[in-house]
Fold this sequence. Notes:
By secondary structure, this protein is mostly helical.
Amino acid sequence: xxxxxxxxxxxxxxxxLAPLTRILIxxxxxxxxxxxxVEQEYVKSAIRQLAMKNELVSSSRISIITGLxxxxxxxxxxxxxxxxxxxxxxxxxxxxxxxxxxxxxVAMT
Length: 109
């Protein structure tokens, strides 16, 4: 049952991506640039999901959830401007006090 839901989600993504990629190509956005945006959004979403579940937020956990290598996760998190969700701690060692949990976050610069 889960696979059929996943297949439906993938099919929906394809129907969204077809017109989106036409627009991106028209305006000179490369596949690499789109891929970088997708990777950033995956990392952001994984951080939010873990924080909402009061789970430990680390590069390893984000890597497992997203399927991205840890070095890619780290480069996204540590990039200028960072990806810090509002109220997130600045390093993996700072507790996520705002959520009242044992949750921590990866370095957010």
